[in-house]
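hi! just following up on the protien thing from before. the input was this:
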Amino acid sequence: MASIGSSNGRRRILFRGADGKRRTLWLGKVTARTAEDVKRKVEALVVASITGSLVEDEVARWVASRDVRMLEKLAAVGLIVRRHRETVGSLLEAFERGNQQVKPGTQIFRGHTVRCLREYFGEGRALASIGNSEAEGFREWLVGLGLAAATVARRVQLARQIFGYGVRRELLQRNPFGGVSHGSGDPRRRQHYVTIEESKRLIAGAPDWVWRVIIALCRFGGLRCPSEVLSLRLSGLDWEHGAMTVISPKTEGHGQGSRVVPMFGRLRPYLEEAWEMAVEGQTHVIPEGLYLPAANGPNGWVNCNLRTTFGKIVRRAGLERWPRLFHALRASCESDLAREYPITTVCRWIGNTVAIAARHYVQVTDQDFRRACGTENSAHQSAQQASETGCNGEQQEPENPDCAGVCEGVRYCTTVQVGDTGFEPVTSTL
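and the predicted 3d structure came back as:
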């Protein structure tokens, strides 16, 4: 039978193979308990090879869970047959080769999940040895790392996508992550509604006209920051129709590279200021040499320290810093628009879907609650009723001044320019 030897702290298993020759299986620096366990597995494999019987299930599972290096050692001493098999490493390599046309930000996110899969399962882990319990173990391991619920949910979702790719490529028979999921938490806990009065205080605390325009584009135009704000071009401002063409780098890979948005009443003065401040040769509303080179770099769109500067503006305005600074401005804009226009129209302007808007953007404010209870003053209620009559000569000032003075722009945007926009990929929940 087999025996355990040691040399310079490195353990080895000594045995005679089915051909009667002495063999040595080097294990390296392992504990005595590990060496003893391997010895028993080696003895079982030798007996199976001599008698021609089937390997015990426990031993077969042990072999299937070994990494490539160990399998090579076992094959070299004749304990197993060297054969090609699909492993976690081969699946991840195939997935990365087949999905190279993604944005840098997506590559970074995907890299985190791939790294976790390699670390948890091992590069040489056989795909056939991974079942639902192992996939659930991966989810629990991510939770144990202390990651946020949304991060765990996105990584589990991408792991399910990767193994689903393996099923389609016939690298494995079924997806072990098919029934594994993780709740991403309640997004309302990170939501914050920025009122019009607070927005005015933010703009008043801005250090220059550039930051006034940035804040206004986010809060009164609903643009993503930094990608859409810094991509907005002066040539995209249609003063005649009261509209602006917003370039959307986030959704361009899905055929939604731009959308037409009205110049809302509260936004237009700041666009006019940006137009007046533009110098000869300038192409973007926010001067392209200011933040754009740092924001759109090798790693995709990043905030290029905009969040730090905006945090100082928030403190200067006497406000308490809220989560997701720029997202809250955009969500507050969509919440205001949803009170005045159909949600499908609003989503086309904002550039997301109704489902995403309902879960992550549109918020219920105290003003909505008072209106439902009938405690709003009569003048306010009259303005609300008048705003529902449409853009005609008899309409009074709408309840939401953000939308005032844009009837022609709205008609132009909804009947001529806007296609099937509004698609927003769920990469913030994958």
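Confidence is low (pLDDT under 50) at residues 386-402, 404-409, 414-430.
The beta strands are 3-7, 10-16, 22-28, 237-238, 243-247, 258-262, 296-297, 300-301.
cheers
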